[in-house]
Write a structure and sequence with these properties.
heterodimer; A: mainly alpha; 79% helix; B: mainly beta; Neuraminidase
């Protein structure tokens, strides 16, 4: 039992880190892209500084809500649900977890937005920005499934 | 008349500690439902506009519970509602006030400027002078703060709309702008972009976020406007026609998410604020002391603060901030609007969904 829990925790942690990293970087890229469209000249150093700053800021620096912490909670619901669904309908875990990762990430953003006067994560305001979050969620789910699979006990 | 009857109508009086400016605070009225705007008439009456559209009159020491009849239909939503009421500088002859509000019955709503005569218990001859329609479903037209300039034209703020913040930099959009119109809604031909076919002729300044306070200083003949930053970066700007105030290219604030809005605090071709506050105080209504009851405050800006729960007194000279004083911090109330009455007292509207207050503030007499 402890082994199963540890395996799940490791997979969840890796999935969350990948989802957070990709989602946060995508968020920053879309914000910077909008600034560039307004005439801002952005050096490579600026891109790096902003992305590094936002990776920290989105994890711990928000006023109302932390992207990172909320994503961890969202995946804590989405990934076990994916395992149960995959087992129940006998579909590959990678497929179900990928969908669950995307749904979990997008649901997290939309639930946060319900009570906000506008879209809280600026880089997700456009369809393309949200599509990038979907991709981050899918990759997080795939990573989760891969870790689960790699750490599964070999068949006797 | 408030001045004559404030003592009689006194509900409570407290003394607010402030090292430099001890204040006497009298509560004139309570139970106001999300009061948004306070307009002092030359005869000393006060008009209080609530977000949902009720306009109440404080007269002869009491708040008349029956709102003015014939008020416009307001669309009250999270951000929209009755935004502002200002008094015509020619009120003595016109008896008119100007109102800005969210109209319609669904999002996105049009932002309307209307004028009406203040009659006995009712608004009369309500006329829409300007109706700004959202150009697409994403646009949220809010702010709507009105200020008369020295030439009789009317300045109005339009916020950036939040999700559409990039439009603050686009001159074909009215989002994130101060616009300038005549009292009949027409556009002055000397507006900075009046003759550019690809730009909105109403625009006076651009690159703003959310502005709910502005003052025309008749002595210096300049305009001061405050601006709510996001997470930090609240500002006071000195408005110059045609100037770009930078949002969202340059800001001292961060996004509420903890991410950058922009890595730039200054940006070529944009104006710097004369003052910025980080952390945010959420500046709200703003007024200026001219012949008020505090001779030492002559010319000072008085700025309410919502989340900051205080009033800031800012001594300014052109673009130079000489000193700031925090007032009212021990009251722990969100300040929605401030105005000097004809008696020179400071009238303050506090923000609360069901128990907003109208306060009268005068200097504490020291022995």
């Amino acid at each position: 039992m402890a082994r199963v829990a540890a395996r799940f925790a490791a997979a969840w942690l890796i999935g969350t880190l990948i989802g957070y990293g990709l989602g946060a970087v995508a968020q920053s890229i879309f914000v910077l892209r909008e600034l560039a469209s307004m005439g801002a000249e952005l050096s490579a150093g600026t891109w790096f500084t902003v992305i590094a700053h936002d990776l920290k800021g989105l994890a711990f620096g928000g006023k109302y809500v932390w992207y990172g912490a909320n994503l961890a909670v969202a995946f804590l619901i989405a990934f076990p649900a994916a395992m149960a669904v995959a087992r129940f309908i006998k579909l590959p875990l990678a497929l179900v977890a990928g969908v669950a990762g995307a749904v979990g990430l997008v649901a997290m953003i939309e639930i946060i937005n319900v009570n906000a006067p506008n879209t809280l994560f600026a880089g997700t305001r456009g369809l393309d920005g949200m599509a990038a979050q979907v991709v981050a969620g899918i990759l997080a789910g795939l990573a989760f499934a891969a870790v689960i699979r790699r750490t599964e006990s070999p068949a006797p | 008349m408030i001045a004559a009857s404030a003592i009689a109508g006194l509900i409570a009086a407290v003394h607010v500690a402030s090292a430099a400016s001890p204040l006497k605070v009298e509560t004139l009225a309570g139970d106001l439902k999300a009061p948004h705007t306070l307009a002092m008439l030359p005869n000393g009456d006060a008009l209080i506009g609530e977000k949902a559209g009720r306009i109440l009159v404080f007269r002869d020491g009491r708040l008349h519970q029956t709102p003015l009849a014939n008020a416009p239909k307001i669309f009250a939503t999270q951000l929209g509602g009755l935004a502002n009421i200002v008094v015509d500088p020619d009120f003595a002859t016109t008896s008119e006030i100007f109102l800005s509000y969210a109209a319609g019955d669904r999002e996105p709503w049009p932002l309307v400027v209307a004028k009406a005569k203040v009659g006995e218990g009712a608004l009369e001859n309500l006329q829409t002078i300007l109706e700004i329609e959202p150009t697409n479903a994403d646009e949220r037209l809010w702010a709507g703060y009105l200020t008369f300039l020295g030439d009789g034209t009317l300045l109005m703020s339009i916020a950036d709309g939040g999700d559409t913040r990039a439009k603050a930099q686009r001159l074909d959009s009215l989002l994130g702008k101060f616009i300038r119109i005549y009292k009949d809604g027409k556009v002055p031909t000397d507006n900075p972009f009046a003759n550019a076919s690809d730009k909105r002729p109403e625009i006076y300044t651009y690159g703003h976020r959310h502005m709910i306070g502005a003052v025309y200083d008749p002595v210096q003949r300049i305009i001061y406007a405050n601006e709510n930053g996001p997470y930090g970066g609240d500002e006071i700007n000195l408005l110059k026609p045609g100037a770009n105030y930078g949002w969202p290219l340059a800001t001292y604030g961060m996004d509420y998410s903890g991410a950058y809005v922009s890595p730039f605090q200054e940006f070529p071709g944009t104006e710097q604020p004369i003052l910025h506050w980080t952390p945010s105080i959420a500046p709200s209504g703003m007024t200026q002391c001219r012949s008020c009851q505090w001779p030492a405050w002559e010319g000072d800006l008085i700025v309410g603060a919502l989340s900051g729960q205080r009033i800031m007194r800012v001594k300014v000279e052109g673009a130079k901030v000489i000193e700031q004083e925090t007032l009212f911090a021990d009251q722990k109330r969100r300040i929605r609007d401030v105005a000097f009455g004809p008696d020179g007292a400071l009238y303050v509207l506090t923000d609360h969904p069901t128990n907003g207050l109208l306060l009268r503030v005068t200097p504490e007499k020291t022995q």
